[in-house]
Amino acid sequence: MIIIRVNIIGAGSIGLLFAHQLQICGHSIHISTRSDEQAHTLNKNGVTAPQSQAVKVAASQIDKTTFNESEAVIIAVKQYHLNEILPALRRVPDHIPLIFLQNGMSHLTYLSSIPHKHIFVSTVEHGSKKLNSHTYQHNGIGWWRVACYRGNSELADRLIACNRTEFPVVFEADYERLLTVKLIKNLMINPLTALFNVRNGELEANARYREMMKLLYSEIMFIFPEAVTHCRLDDIFDLCMKTAENESSMLSDIKAGRKTEIEAMTGYATKIAEEKKVKPLIIPFLENAILAIQERKEKN
């Protein structure tokens, strides 16, 4: 396998997961962090996970990071933090591929303004929870699905060589389909788990929640009818069962008093609905419900 020098921007639960798994694959990892303190901790302790080997990584605060030696940059921050890291991305030479891991589809507009020649989008189906500044817990194995937004797919081919049982990787030909399917799954699962404070499996196990999901699915299919063959309701129920013990990222954010990605998830769906002159009712309700909970937490 060809070793790739990878810089990961963001050291949350997903950033730590990727640093750990890609280092185990043999790649050379540098993590760009928000704080000097976290960079110091990562340089000292590496990235660790329960019941797994610790790995050594290099780390630096993002404003002090140089990207000239990188062969790929993975952006592992939440969608609402993308504008904050734009100055750092401008320091990345435009021939170096960028790989985005964000939920939702609102960041597609952001990508169109970036001059880099090779840009990839991807979806992450793993469950991961950050335990401290250098440790994460791997709560569920899933696919890392990568698609080319701009440029060529050579880098994706090299990353797919990292495909392992604990970290399966696959290349998808259609980036819009990939992101649309993930958006639908996120819209179906994240807000409901956060609203009702339940793990993923409860959505399938409870008849009341299943009825709500059927109504929500019908509304979403009015907005994205082309997705019906790629994202069936049964597929979403299956995902709930496969990740039954997982706590969605939105529920974790609510519990921790953090800002959620609800607007990143609902924003694109609402935009497409307006273009198609569809007037959704459930999606705006979910957005306002989650924002109300979020704002109440912020006040407390």
From TrEMBL:
Residues 181-279 form the Ketopantoate reductase C-terminal domain. SUPFAM superfamilies: 6-phosphogluconate dehydrogenase C-terminal domain-like, NAD(P)-binding Rossmann-fold domains. GO terms for biological process: pantothenate biosynthetic process. It catalyses: (R)-pantoate + NADP(+) = 2-dehydropantoate + NADPH + H(+). It is an enzyme of class 1 (oxidoreductase). Residues 8-149 form the Ketopantoate reductase N-terminal domain. The keyword Glycosyltransferase does not apply. Pathway: Cofactor biosynthesis; (R)-pantothenate biosynthesis; (R)-pantoate from 3-methyl-2-oxobutanoate: step 2/2. GO terms for cellular component: cytoplasm. Signal peptide: none annotated. Pfam families: ApbA (PF02558), ApbA_C (PF08546). The keyword Ribonucleoprotein does not apply. Keywords: NADP, Oxidoreductase, Pantothenate biosynthesis. GO terms for molecular function: 2-dehydropantoate 2-reductase activity; NADP binding. Its EC number is 1.1.1.169. Belongs to the ketopantoate reductase family. NCBIfam families: apbA_panE (TIGR00745). Catalyzes the NADPH-dependent reduction of ketopantoate into pantoic acid. PANTHER family: 2-DEHYDROPANTOATE 2-REDUCTASE, 2-DEHYDROPANTOATE 2-REDUCTASE-RELATED. This is 2-dehydropantoate 2-reductase.
